[in-house]
């Protein structure tokens, strides 16, 4: 059986060694030494000085929206994980869905201005599947209209824009270190910003708003993460370069094997470098997509319809916006299996099944 993803597991002994330290210090959580060590290693690795480690990516999004005091409408993408839009509603704001580009699958900057009203306070864009948005274009619009920008960079560990980590952009970027992400701490996430005052604010918000033992600077929540999660992150960070390298090899091999007119791949925008964290393909229509999924599943291979459905069509968001490109891509996209221990032979097997399913379909037209 081949699943769409598998979490990366480092050698146990390396994690246990750090656990020994936890038993010695008896310090389990609350800004402990391993959390601090992970934050400082991440600063070095990513070359970003202002970041905090939190308990998951969704908390990071919720803190970001509160810390920027956003109100009213937030322009966002319908082609993302549900947490992107639900965090907006959770923060008492209204998501306004703007359609995506058919090549990058990211928020289409050309459509943003038409969606701006007097109520708009921010743009919340996702760099889907580790492919950076057209950040320059989004930044320009935000500056022109005085809007804040938050990037949901949950997929983006290792992605670059203009040769810098994509986490360096926006008023705030957030990421997820969930077990299924390319770099993980089992559960976890991080928030990145530029100003010291904003960093102070989000740090208070992460810890109930505590300023001193008996005083509070902000209304906060519990966004802290534990020494155990930090230990996993510290060990995994030693493997990140080999993880990134292996993913890229697998993705390029998938693309080579699947170069076929009936299959479309995601494309990167200028000055950006993706991290190859997912392997999405887009088929010609939904019927073909379902055929390919069925062919794979009957061989015990489980891809995933991701992201499906397009969030503007999800009833909990009460949205009246049409996003034809996002709806179309959502109905035709499949993420193929991709994880560190996947072998080239597995890619051969998976791609041969897909090509056979496509050929069968083409034959039935004759
Ligand atoms: C995984 C993910 C999140 C949520 O991160 P968690 O750490 O699971 O809370 C948010 N946005 C996107 C695009 C994601 O893929």
From TrEMBL:
<keyword id="KW-0032">Aminotransferase</keyword>
<feature type="active site" description="Proton acceptor">
    <location>
        <position position="181"/>
    </location>
</feature>
<dbReference type="InterPro" id="IPR000653">
    <property type="entry name" value="DegT/StrS_aminotransferase"/>
</dbReference>
<keyword id="KW-0663">Pyridoxal phosphate</keyword>
<dbReference type="GO" id="GO:0000271">
    <property type="term" value="P:polysaccharide biosynthetic process"/>
</dbReference>
<dbReference type="GO" id="GO:0030170">
    <property type="term" value="F:pyridoxal phosphate binding"/>
</dbReference>
<feature type="modified residue" description="N6-(pyridoxal phosphate)lysine">
    <location>
        <position position="181"/>
    </location>
</feature>
<protein>
    <submittedName>
        <fullName>Aminotransferase DegT</fullName>
    </submittedName>
</protein>
<dbReference type="GO" id="GO:0008483">
    <property type="term" value="F:transaminase activity"/>
</dbReference>
<comment type="similarity">
    <text>Belongs to the DegT/DnrJ/EryC1 family.</text>
</comment>
<dbReference type="Pfam" id="PF01041">
    <property type="entry name" value="DegT_DnrJ_EryC1"/>
</dbReference>
<dbReference type="InterPro" id="IPR015421">
    <property type="entry name" value="PyrdxlP-dep_Trfase_major"/>
</dbReference>
<dbReference type="InterPro" id="IPR015424">
    <property type="entry name" value="PyrdxlP-dep_Trfase"/>
</dbReference>
<keyword id="KW-0808">Transferase</keyword>
């Amino acid at each position: 059986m081949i699943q769409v993803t598998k979490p990366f597991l480092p050698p146990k002994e390396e994690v246990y060694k750090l656990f020994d330290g936890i038993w010695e210090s008896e310090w389990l959580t609350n800004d402990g030494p391993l959390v601090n060590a992970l934050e400082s290693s991440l600063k070095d690795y990513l070359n970003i000085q202002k970041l905090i480690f939190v308990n998951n990516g969704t908390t990071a999004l919720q803190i970001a929206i509160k810390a920027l005091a956003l109100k009213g409408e937030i322009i966002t993408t319908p082609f993302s994980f549900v947490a992107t839009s639900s965090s907006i509603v959770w923060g008492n704001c209204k998501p306004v869905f703007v359609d995506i580009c058919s090549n990058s699958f990211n928020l289409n900057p050309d459509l943003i201005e038409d969606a701006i009203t007097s109520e708009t306070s921010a743009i919340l864009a996702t760099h889907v599947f580790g492919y950076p948005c057209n950040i320059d274009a989004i930044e320009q619009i935000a500056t022109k209209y005085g809007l804040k920008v938050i990037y949901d960079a949950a997929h983006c560990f290792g992605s670059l824009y203009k040769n810098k980590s994509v986490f360096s952009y926006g008023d705030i970027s957030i990421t997820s270190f969930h077990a299924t992400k390319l770099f993980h701490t089992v559960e976890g996430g991080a928030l990145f910003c530029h100003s010291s005052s904003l960093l102070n604010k989000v740090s208070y918000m992460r810890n109930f708003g505590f300023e001193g033992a008996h005083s509070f600077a902000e209304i906060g929540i519990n966004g802290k993460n534990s020494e155990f999660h930090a230990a996993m992150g510290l060990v995994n960070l030693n493997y990140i370069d080999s993880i990134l390298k292996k993913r890229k090899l697998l993705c390029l091999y998938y693309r080579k094997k699947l170069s076929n007119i009936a299959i479309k791949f995601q494309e990167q925008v200028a000055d950006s470098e993706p991290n190859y964290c997912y392997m999405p393909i887009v088929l010609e229509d939904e019927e073909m997509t379902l055929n390919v999924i069925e062919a794979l599943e009957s061989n015990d291979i489980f891809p995933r319809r991701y992201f499906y459905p397009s969030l503007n069509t999800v009833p909990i968001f009460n949205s009246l916006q049409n996003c034809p490109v996002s709806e179309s891509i959502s109905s035709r996209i499949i993420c193929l299996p991709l994880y560190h221990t996947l072998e080239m032979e597995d890619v051969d097997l998976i791609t041969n099944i897909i090509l056979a399913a496509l050929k069968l379909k083409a034959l039935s037209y004759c």
